[in-house]
Design a protein that fits this description.
- This protein is of the alpha/beta class and about 240 residues long.
- Helices cover about 45% and strands about 15% of the residues.
- It has 7 helices and 7 strands.
- Strand 2, helix 2 and strand 3 form a beta-alpha-beta unit.
- The radius of gyration is 17 Å and the shape is globular.
- The model has no long low-confidence stretch (mean pLDDT about 95).
Length: about 240
Amino acid sequence: MSVIQNKVVIITGASSGLGEATAKRLAASGAKLMLAARREDRLKELVAEITKSGGTATYRVTDVVDRTQVETLAQETLITYGRIDVLINNAGLMPLSPLDQVKVEEWEQMIDVNIKGVLYGIAAVLPIMRQQKSGHVINLSSVAGHKVFAGSAVYCATKYAVRAISEGLRLESNGEIRSTNISPGAVATELTTTISDQDTAARMNEFYEIAIDADAIARAIAYAIEQPDDVDVNEMIIRPTRQEL
């Protein structure tokens, strides 16, 4: 039996990309899933696919920039399954642009989703995990959280912040809460579709020709979850073999 069997897992940004791939992989290993995203049609399709294959999943439409919605997500998970073992903070945006384009609204959007969304998720589950005296928070950062790229300053800043939050949670864990920070490189997802600056979009689309499948990250997430309780996988950087930066 997989160690993942019967673990209750919340996944944000579950309607596509890394979230969807992770949901499918964890469901196949017997996890009980609460899937969250804004696109209800996608969530319904994914839950139907998982349940048809014998897995256990439900969903709640959630915008991670709304703290009340994230709190409700956690409470609904607790009501449905009786506990919360893992939170995967996966929801994120990447509308890259040079700073002199002054796309302030896009900066604010990244800060709201990529940083505040992560914090809201932690705030919603941490009291529950403290009461259980166990839990695991997995945050999706990026190689952009390790290196700053031209045209990516604000995005990089948000992903550096995710790394800092992950490490802070580890230091404050008191041996109860596991904290994992996962930093993907180029992965085939919808992230590049949020780039409104045409020159930047063209460069990134060319760069992403080497992108690896989202299941590569899902496998890494599963690996972190399935470790024994006394093992905390804190940091993983996962790039395509051909990616240099």
